[in-house]
Amino acid sequence: MSTTEAPHRVDEPAAPQIPRGWAALVGVLAVAAAVAAGQLVAGLVAPASSPYLAVGDAVVRLSPHGLTEFAKATFGTADKPVLLAGMALVIAGVAALAGLASRRQPGPAVVVVVVLGVLGLGAVMFEPAFAPLDVLAPTASLVVGVAVVRWLHRLALAAAGRREEPAQVAGLTRRALLVRSAVAVGVASLAGGAAGSWLGRGVGDLRGTVTERIAGARLAERAPAIPASAAFPELGTPTFLTPNAEFYRIDTALRVPVLAAQDWSLRIHGMVDAERTLTFDDLLSRPLVERPVTLTCVSNPVGGDLISTATFTGIDLRDLLLEVGVRPGADQAFSTSVDGWYTGTPVDVLLEPDRGAMLAVGMNGEALPLEHGFPVRMVVPGLYGYVSATKWVTDLELTTFGAKAGFWLQRGWAQKGPIKTGSRIDSPRGFAALPAGRVTVAGIAWSQPTGIGRVEVSVDGGPWQEAELATEVSGDTWRMWRAGFDLAPGGHSVRSRATAADGVTQTEAVADPVPDGATGWPDVAFSVS
Ligand SMILES: Nc1nc2c(c(=O)[nH]1)N[C@H]1C(S)=C(S)[C@@H](COP(=O)(O)O)O[C@H]1N2
Ligand SMILES: [Mo]
After folding, report:
1. pLDDT digits (tens, 9 = 90+) for 135-183
2. Domain limits of the chain?
């Protein structure tokens, strides 16, 4: 028999245990406080960063398609409240079990609170519109959850009769202290959670309402149909329209501005005949236009993916400028967003009759996503985004380039940003190892607003061969191309060059994106065996 074990002392009082009901309640209250803290901080700093709602979003995203369809069919528009209530029940159940597993030591409950907190943090960070400040709310959740679970656990253990604690604190018995603290946590959680939800109200829902209003609006110009022959996704090109969730995103916003449509207005002022302030209702009472446009970022390197296409819905900006009357001499339309970003667009471009500049409210049949400028942004075909595509736009001043300089202009980028004709090879991918036989090279080309006239491909430095172009949708959008070659086994390389419809060919000269856009012919190396 081992003699190293401490002898069992029969006279030692049993370690105190929290009664079951209280143990479960401690777990539930701590998690409720955590959820409420996240909701409150999110409501105050970044409504889209609520960890609770982010977990809900993640559940929807990760659910098999069949399940989400079933939920929609069964619960209709109540599917979201049903999901959120179901989540609340599951989380409360987990929290209660965690409390029950912690009747003596707080350890298990703390671990569960931390795990739930990390899940919330992860869900927020994987939101499509994640911005750095969004970590505040889930972090507050985690910290409050851990603090509350430890604190209530200590009080509950004391009430259960641990000797070291004083019998009375501030004149209250240990039990009365526990009851009051529990009630306080419960009330604070309800109030904080409600206040946070109210502050961040409608973030998800506002877009839904706008989407419906756009669908019901009067269309003065309908987007052309997009035939299947406009893209070769089966060959590795993008789909013709980029799904909103995959649309490239560039901005300086640390957190996505959240501005309700009814709180939005645009002031048009400066060198105009009649200054004017437009509300969202004013915009939607005008005839809307629908235009497919390929947006391009000046920072896009050769071969890069800062280029995407959507059908934008909005009002014609030229019409609006003609109504307010731009005074002679105003050469710059200086736009500012609600988060303080600003840029200048050449007025002569905005006033070109065929340019198609817009104030956009919709993107691919929905309200603009929050991260793409909800509720209103500018879109100007043929100009890089940094001089034209102001998101969350709330102010438009007609002025001169001499008087004011845009944000990126002050940082070394060019004043005017016409998009340079370009092409990209999407297939084969660099260093692909392909089977012997016929190799299809495919990619995209763009020259907004002129359109693409020709794309040529050269294999291993050989002669340029004309690629087959996909069906053209609009000069304002990209155009896909493909070309087939029979290649001998071994290493190969391909290059491409695009020529605009006006006959000007993409330049071979290599240039960095700064100051006015990268140039050079893209090339890809691969092997055939
Ligand atoms: N308010 C605001 N609008 C902005 C920017 C920004 O930083 N802030 N970036 C611009 C740039 S550089 C580009 S390329 C486009 C990108 O639009 P997207 O994010 O919808 O693709 O938005 C433009 N509009
Ligand atoms: Mo950009």
Report:
1. 999 999 999 999 999 999 999 998 988 556 667 777 788 889 999 999 9
2. 20-200, 209-411, 422-528
395 Cβ inside 6 Å of ligand 1: no
Q: Beta partners for 47?
A: none
Taking the chain, what is the end-to-end CA distance rounded to the nearest angstrom? 72
Q: Regarding predicted confidence, which is higher, 408 or 8? A: 408
Q: 156 C-alpha to center of ligand 2: Å?
A: 57
Which residue CA neighbors atom 10 of ligand 1 most closely? 386
The reply to whether ligand 1 has any atom less than 6 angstroms from the CB of 295 is yes
Average pLDDT for residues 108-131, to the nearest whole number?
Answer: 89
Strand-pairing partners, residue 506, are none
Which architecture characterizes domain 422-528 according to CATH? Sandwich (2.60)
For a mutational test of ligand 1's pocket, the pick from 312, 337, 386, i.e. the residue with the most ligand atoms closer than 8 A to its C-beta, is 386
In this prediction, residue 204 carries a pLDDT of: 57
- The closest residue, in CA terms, to atom 19 on ligand 1 is 249
CATH level 3 topology of 209-411: Sulfite Oxidase; Chain A, domain 2 (3.90.420)
Nearest Cα to 39, choosing from 30, 27, 48, 28? 48
Pocket test for ligand 1, best of 249, 251, 312, 393 (most atoms within 8 A of CB): 251
Q: Which of 335, 334, 340 is nearest to 253 (CA)?
A: 340
Q: Which ligand is nearest to the CA of 295?
A: 1
Bridge partners (DSSP) of residue 290 are 313
- pLDDT grade for 3, boundaries at 50, 70 and 90: very low
Long-range CB contacts (within 8 A, 24+) of 223-229 = 223/290, 223/291, 223/292, 223/311, 224/292, 224/473, 224/474, 226/292, 226/473, 227/471, 227/473, 229/470, 229/471
> What's the rounded mean pLDDT across residues 429-454?
96
Mean pLDDT for the stretch of residues 433-456? 96
CA of 392 to the centre of ligand 1 (A): 10
Ligand number nearest to the C-alpha of 408: 1
What one-character DSSP code corresponds to residue 339?
T
For residues 225 and 26, give the distance between their C-alpha atoms in angstroms, rounded to a whole number: 59
